[in-house]
Design a protein that fits this description.
The protein is of the alpha+beta class and 95 residues long. It has three helices and two strands, in the order αββαα. The chain has helices at residues 9-20, 73-79, 89-92; strands at residues 48-52, 68-72. It is globular and about 30 Å long. It binds zinc ion.
Length: 95
């Protein structure tokens, strides 16, 4: 139970590896804006993010490549912390 950190080197390596696959978003099937890099990628809704097939809150492994998925930032955060609800996340979230 150590080293399971998003700031750790293995996680970064997995992120780079997953990004290099050049896959479309596994949630909506849309193309990822891979050309966006740097600080802008941290804000852009269509930038690449590393998602997990089995959410970490459900026991998914942060660092398992088999659990890694490619997702838009938008789709990843929409799915985000509400993995078990049956309600559509879009209408249930208040900012
Ligand atoms: Zn998407």
């Amino acid at each position: 139970m150590t080293g399971n950190s998003r700031n750790g080197r293995p996680y970064r390596r997995l992120t780079i590896w997953q990004r290099a696959l050049g896959l479309p978003c596994w949630l909506c099937g849309g193309e990822i804006a891979y050309w966006i890099t740097g600080p802008e990628a941290g804000r852009h809704p269509e930038a690449f993010t590393l998602d997990h097939a089995v959410p970490l809150s459900h026991g998914g492994d942060l660092l398992d490549p088999a659990n890694a998925r490619t997702a838009h930032r938008r789709c990843n955060s929409a799915r985000g912390n509400r993995t078990t609800t049956r309600k559509p996340t879009r209408s249930s979230r208040r900012w």
